[in-house]
Design brief:
This protein is of the alpha/beta class and 353 residues long. 36% of the residues lie in helices and 17% in strands.
Amino acid sequence: MRIVRRLLLLLVVALPATVFSQEPAQPACEESEKECAAKALKDHVVTRVDFWRAALVKPILDRMGAAPPELVEYLNLDNIKNGFPNRPHAAKVTPDFRRDVHNAIAEIPFEVRQLLSRKLAGIYFVEDLGGTGYTDEIVDAGAKAVAGFIVLDLSVLAKQTANAWATWKENTPFKAQPGIRLVAEIERKQQNNRKNAIQYILLHEFGHVVSINEKFHPSWKLEAREIPASADFPWFWSSWDVSPEDNLFVTHYDRDFAQRKDVVYYLGAKLPADQMIAVYDNLEQTNFATLYSVTRPGDDFAEAFASYVHTVLMKKPFEIRIYRDDKLAKLYKSCWTEKRCLQKRRMLERLFN
């Protein structure tokens, strides 16, 4: 799913040339041919588990590298389908970036890496993705989702520190206005570096991979009208409902959280900055861990997963500070010690137990 379905390790040992074809791949559709791209994406080779079998048997830290040509083709088709102007290409990974990604993963709790061992086909690097990160499902011969791959845009991540990236991300839903600013902190000063930016972005994408074929939420490939009321997704139903007439996912809180439908990350702010405080006040009346969680069911789980691992298992900070005329007007912190997030915390505790 991106850090829009796109959010946002490294190669210590590169995948051998025999694992993937090294011939350059070009999308089979022209820039404006969205229907062509949608058709080409269906049953694409990178969505099949057979393509990834060699990667899936490797140790977690070896399942990574420059994106193979087939994956580059898939990403370009997806961008054409969704109207993104970006045209991804495989990235060349520098030794220092490799070291940062390797260390970011090595520091993640063992429980997380264990959950990923059967499902993560790898982490692959491109440039000009159109977002920080991307995760998608891989299916078996019976079309059952069984695994996932992650793509990261190296050019976006190369110069980011943790707090700079988080601050940029959390400002994207809001139109800038004088005298109002939002600052995000996900690392203390001495740990505010690129490695920890990569780590938090990966935790979100890992959440998407972990959720595949589990009872947290429906597949992100399904539309709202395709979700039956009897579907067994306890996490999903704890926050979300389906509006089949409009083909929309809606939350239990929409009546009192009027701004929720206008919370849009990365694609163009809809909310004026002077609504920041009201938005976060309303968020505190929900069971969502972060503001990004309210955008769609898949990101609800991925954000909660990342936040829980980061703040509870790894004991790191998460604070959103909103300033009005340089005075602190709102402080938002992790919800995992609060009653409002207790039900979801218990589900995460069962996952890690």
